[in-house]
Amino acid sequence: MLEVKGLAKRYGEVLALSDLTVDVDERSCLVLLGRNGAGKTTALRCMAGVLAPTHGTVRVDGIDAAIEPAAVRARVGLMPELPGLYERMSARAYLDYFGAIYDMEPGARKRRIDELLELFELTDAGDRWLGTFSKGMRQKVALIRATLHRPRLVLADEPTSALDPDSARRAWAYLKDLQAGGCALVICTHNMDEAEHLGASADGDGAIGIMSSGRALAIGDISELRRRSGLQVRKEVRELPTLQDVYLAIVGNHHHELAEPRSA
Amino acid sequence: MSSLSLDRHSISKARLVAARDLRDAVSELRLILAMVALTLAIPIGSAAGIRALAVFGGGTAVVNRLSLVGAFFVVFIPASFSLVLALESFVGERERTTLEVLVSTPLKEAEIYAGKVAAVLAISLTLCYGGLAVYCLVVFPGLGYFPLDVLVALALSTICQVAAMVAGAVIISLNARTMRAANVMASFIILPMSVALQVEAALILLGRSEFLWGFAGLMLVLAAILLRMGLNGFSREALLARDSGLRKPMQRAANAIRASFQHRPGFLRLLWLRRGALVISSLGLPAGAVAGFVAGTTGAIPASVVKPVLSTLVASAGDGTPFDEAVAIVSHNLLAILLVAPLALITAGLSGFLLTFMPGFLVGFAAAHSSWATALTGIVPNGIVEIPVAIIAGGLAIHIGAAAIHMEASGGWTARVLAAGADYLRALRWLVPALILAGVLEVRFG
Fold first, then answer.
1. pLDDT-based confidence at B247, cuts 50/70/90?
2. CA–CA separation, B406 vs B233, rounded Å?
3. Å from A150 to nearest chain B CA?
4. Beta-bridge partner residues of A215
5. What backbone torsions phi and psi does residue B107 show, to the nearest 5 degrees?
6. B90: part of which helix (H) or strand (E)?
7. Does the beta-carbon distance from A12 to B107 stay under 8 Å?
8. DSSP one-letter code for B266
């Protein structure tokens, strides 16, 4: 579904992303973890066909994002970190506008909007201006907008950062449903619960990528990352290291390497 | 680079964007009130004032002229409002991150650009023409005077002014991330536009519709250039990618200036590379001569207008020692070629063309009032050196102007303009000694 090879992106003098290679199949989810400025958002924008790569290729459904970016964008649902909603539009009108942009038929569009507003408990607020919405409600609308047109690939940047735990679980369940329906997911997050829930599922359809300074330090399933981190089973409590432990171990090792480069 | 060749599907998408922006603009109560006030209150107030002047014996000529100035005033206020709307539509959306969402959809840049520009134009022109219609309905029926040609020229130039301001706002949006920064940068549009409007007001007072048509034509060219620049520069990369890499601005500026002088071609190679601009510049001389001759023979421009210019030029040569004369001539010419480069930035290179056109015009005008032999005698032998210098300086200035109005989605505008400016400065190493030689020749043999 998503094939990324040697992806690099440079903004002027800043190399935001370097040599990222990753494949995400249908019904799979890749979770990207990393500090602020690690290159996650840039990676999402390149995968969405919004930014052109400086080097490397991005293919969605076999379509090269550098050659047919509009076709890629039509197959992708991008949810940026900030919802970016029009304050003086109702939720329904807003979603209808984006449905029209994605060439959805008016009838199908209305049904889909009603269905998703109900799923996210926004039916009653559907005719209110978005400017009156709470932060969490805005994030729900942004998630609905990104997935309204049933994209083949959903790219979401911190999709539940403003949601309460209950709403967050509902959003995860929704994303899992999309995944089960054949969609591929790429999720950037700082929330380890979210990363474990979406990227480390037992059925092996998830992967986690850990990024730092524009590079992917490690990509794999949770057991592979545990192995890479060098952490062992915690003897005192007899439990596996959490993803948080794994993340800190890998990022910590990387920064240690950067600070004290090995001598030849 | 974006292209504005929109097919049917693209037009429907642009209409979708335009419709949303229009709905957004009219959903603001304060904005609606401002629109009503601009469209009704100001025109009615202005028209009532002029009607009152007519009733209380203001004199037909004065009232007729004032009625035209009133029309200009009524159109000017809502036209200036277009800049605010355009900045809000582009920079405001960028600041609120709604533009990021829009550019992540399958919409093409040209569809977003066309939709947004159309929405702002629709609002601004509705206000302008609504106000003008109300004004005309109130003021002219009682006057027995209806200058249709002037009003149509005014209406046309208004479209172009609004389009120019909208396009300027788009260019600002590519360089400003916040409304505060955009408002500061808007001065670069407001100041030249206010000069243009003063010229228009003066032309209206003159009451010559042909001048107004000429002005409208110039505004049309300006609007086309700016709209094209906006379209070429409006890209996802420009809107999203330039958020990074902006650290240490002073050091970056110094590096950019330093880099613009590095790896540049030598003088002769530069002349070859800029041959197109040099040809345009060299055509200015005969074109000016023909225009001047025609103007002189037909009396289109009275001799009383041009003769003081010629007298000033002659007087500027000075009447002191030969050294003083040479210094005066060189200083005069040097000032001209030093001014022409910065002026090229804001005149799209027109100043470079005028550097050869204007001397040609004066020679042609002088020929019309004497003979070609007499007129040409005045520019030899110094002209043998001065004319090539003017052609080279003019051509390089035209290139600066061309760089200034050329935008690409991938950016690099500053680097291109700086490189063109650096080429000009480096060429002065050859042009200034040539001007000194020309000054000496003029004093010694002229």
1. low
2. 9
3. 13
4. A212
5. -60, 140
6. none
7. no
8. P
Structure-token pair, residue A91: 């939720």
Q: Do A84 and B97 touch (CB under 8 A)?
A: yes
Q: Band of the pLDDT at B315, cuts 50, 70, 90?
A: low
pLDDT at A208 over 60: yes
Give the closest-approach CA distance of A235 to chain B in angstroms: 45
Question: Which chain A residues have any C-beta within 8 angstroms of a chain B C-beta?
Answer: 11-14, 16, 45, 48, 50-52, 70-71, 73-74, 76, 78, 80, 82-89, 97-98, 100-102, 142, 145
Tell me the C-alpha distance between A114 and B183, whole Å: 41
> In chain A, what residues touch B115 (CB-CB under 8 Å)?
none
Interface touch A85/B98, C-beta < 8 Å: yes
Q: Which residues contact B255 (CB under 8 A, 6 or more apart)?
A: none
Q: Are B408 and B233 in contact (CB under 8 A)?
A: yes
Residue pair A44/A155 in contact (Cβ under 8 Å)? The answer is yes
pLDDT at B185: 81
Which amino acid belongs to residue B222? L
Q: Is B446 helix (H, G, I), strand (E, B) or coil?
A: coil
B343, B404 Cβ separation under 8 angstroms: no
Closest residue, chain B, to A151 (C-alpha) = B105
How high is the ipTM of this complex? 0.85
**Cβ atoms of B2 and B409 closer than 8 Å:** yes
Which residues on B lie below 8 Å from A89 (Cβ)? Answer: 20, 23-24
pLDDT in tens, B96-145: 889 889 999 999 988 998 999 899 889 888 888 888 888 888 888 877 77
pLDDT in tens, A41-70: 899 999 999 988 999 999 999 999 989 999
Q: Residue A80: which of B101, B108, B244 has the nearest Cβ?
A: B101
The top-scoring range by mean pLDDT among A130-144, A183-197, B139-153 is A130-144
Tokens matching residue B291:
């225009």
B235 within 8 A of B409, measured Cβ to Cβ: yes
Of the listed ranges B67-76, B173-182, B421-430, the one predicted with least confidence: B173-182
Backbone angle region of A142, left / alpha / beta, with phi > 0 → left and psi within -120 to 50 → alpha: alpha
* Residue of A51, A70, A145 lying closest to B240 (CB–CB): A51
Which residues have a Cβ under 8 Å from the Cβ of B151 and sit 6 or more positions away?
A: B68, B71, B132, B136
- Band (B411; pLDDT cuts 50, 70, 90): low
CA distance, residue B373 to nearest chain A CA (Å): 58
Mean pLDDT of B215-231: 84
Cβ pair B100:A80 closer than 8 A: yes
Does the beta carbon of B237 lie under 8 angstroms from any beta carbon of chain A? yes
Q: Which of B99, B86, B180, B170 minimizes the C-alpha distance to B125? A: B86
Beta-strand pair A184-188/A55-60:
unpaired
Partnered with residue A186 across adjacent β-strands are A30, A155
Position B1 scores a pLDDT of 43
